[in-house]
Amino acid sequence: MGQNGKRLENKVSIITGAASGIGEASAILFAREGAKVVLADVNEEKGNGVANRIQNNGNEALFIKADVSKQDDIKKMVEKTIEKFDVIDVLFNNAGIARLKSLHELDEEEWNQVMDINLKGVYLCSKGVLPYMQRQRKGSIINNSSIAGVVGFPGAAAYCASKGGLGLLTRNMALDYAIDGIRVNDICPGVIKTPMTLDEETMGRKQIEEMEKVHPLGRAGKPEEVAYTALFLASDESSFITGSSIMIDGGYTAK
Questions:
Q1: At 147, phi and psi to the nearest 5?
Q2: Average pLDDT of 107-115?
Q3: CATH of the domain at 182
Q4: Which residues are catalytic?
């Protein structure tokens, strides 16, 4: 904890998919806890909006338009972060998409799109920041996985495959980079109230209520509840935790 009692004081933190949902909540929370936040997203308007909110509250933020599946975008993201802040302490690989279809319904383009964002994106972003973290001999990488990477979900073949792969990639990275003082963990949310999941404009109220009830706590999670777990893993409070998966699922995987 910093001198001002802030858990991420002066830690430079990159958050992908930061324009909405869990990424937005995490960016705001990280900044409030003293981080210098770099927000990456394809949605320039919303991303700049979140960055402006953080800056208006007296905290440092930089928005960079970036598609995590494109190597040139990630190279630019990392270079601009170093140019602005000199170091990278935290990477929260949060960007993700879902195509909720069974395997026989998926076309190749949809399969590739999910893998490119959910898995390749983590590879590219992590590879981009690792040299700087290795040079510093410290760093925290947090991967946003899902309970769908731990248990199967009907009608979500590509999503489950991508998140399952992400869980094993996390553990591999934790072992490979422990010698460099770099910790790598993943978080596994259940159903969270975000534009990607519980969207009342595209789903009926009854369908949303049914999805919420699958959790023993009887409700869906809030983006802020996921953000607080990411904050813990980004902070020095979790200094002896690496290679772990933390369920944020209202008890779903305990069943």
A1: -65, -20
A2: 97
A3: 3.40.50.720
A4: 159
